[in-house]
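Reminder to self: tokens first, then the designed residues, so the page reads top to bottom the way the pipeline ran.
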């Protein structure tokens, strides 16, 4: 059986020091300020994605729009859950989630889109998912063992973003190319 690297009395004494830091202990191996900044950028990304999917849900029209709009709405709900999870982690680390609408698109990794064409909506959403996948993969690698809890949050979000990208790719493959117009 493996032994503790530090005796339990020392761990208990350290736990009492700087108690106001909550879960951030001496064992935390990342730059908490930088992690909070990265979490806030991801939060902005998820909020922008939620807004983009909601817009696409409400403005999707055409012969094939009903099942596509349903997928947009499902993704919007899931992106909102991602945002909530990121905000919770920011607070756990002692930070403040940044919901400032004036800076959301500047901080977001993904872009907002106002396409009117159904096929273009799907393509833009797929691009945004691919951006999130690339960003979250890089963030998870960067966090490594320095903050395994935040890394797991990003790994969980990454898995769902990959599902979203797969869903969108499937929609593109099933829709006739001529169906993308409005009306």
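Designed residues (183 positions):
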């Amino acid at each position: 059986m493996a032994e503790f690297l530090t005796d339990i009395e020392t761990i208990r004494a350290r736990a009492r020091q700087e108690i106001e830091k909550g879960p951030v202990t001496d064992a935390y191996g990342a730059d908490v300020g930088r992690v909070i900044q990265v979490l806030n950028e991801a939060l902005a990304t998820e909020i922008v994605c939620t807004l983009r999917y909601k817009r696409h849900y409400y403005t999707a029209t055409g012969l094939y729009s009903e099942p596509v709009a349903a997928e947009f709405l499902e993704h919007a709900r899931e992106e909102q859950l991602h945002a909530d999870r990121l905000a919770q982690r920011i607070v756990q680390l002692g930070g403040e989630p940044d919901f400032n609408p004036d800076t959301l698109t500047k901080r977001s990794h993904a872009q907002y889109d106002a396409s009117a064409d159904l096929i273009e909506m799907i393509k833009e959403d797929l691009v945004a998912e691919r951006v999130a996948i690339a960003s979250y993969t890089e963030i998870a690698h960067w966090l490594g063992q320095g903050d395994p809890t935040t890394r797991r949050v990003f790994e969980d979000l990454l898995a769902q973003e990959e599902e979203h990208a797969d869903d969108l790719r499937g929609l593109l493959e099933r829709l006739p190319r001529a169906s993308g117009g409005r009306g």
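Residues 178-183 have pLDDT under 50 and may be disordered.
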